[in-house]
Design brief:
By secondary structure, this protein is α/β, with parallel strands linked by helices. It is 40% helix and 31% strand. The longest helix has 16 residues.
């Protein structure tokens, strides 16, 4: 299976919707797409929606943590939402939820980051 990435800017927040599998085969592509979009847009905050993400491995964690550092260095905030049980376990075991919040859906994530219009 492959990965589909959908990017949407909402005010100063980049919403990233991932579908499929975020693994060592797709991590570099995602990294490049996110970095390009963050650098060229007026992106301060980042929301990662995993609603349709079926699988993630440690390469995916690396992508998330790298973007977290990038957003944090710009003074922004980052959150994840719509996480299924398998991906939740990986994120929880990695300690990711100690540095960024998790929300049930995009609307709550935007509210939590205080970027709702």
């Amino acid at each position: 299976m492959n990965l589909h990435v959908e990017l949407e800017h909402h005010r100063n927040t980049l919403i990233v919707r991932l579908s499929g599998e975020l693994d060592h085969h797709t991590a570099d592509l995602v990294r490049l797409q996110l970095d390009e979009s963050i650098q060229k847009g007026q992106t301060e905050h980042l929301v990662l929606s995993f609603k349709n993400l079926q699988f993630m491995d440690s390469s995916g964690l690396g992508v998330i943590l790298g973007r977290y550092k990038l957003i944090k260095s710009k003074g922004g905030k980052m959150a994840v939402c719509d996480v299924n049980e398998a991906v939740y376990r990986l994120l929880n075991m990695s300690g990711l939820f100690k540095i960024m919040p998790i929300y049930d859906n995009e609307g709550q994530a935007l509210s939590g980051l205080e970027v709702v219009s």
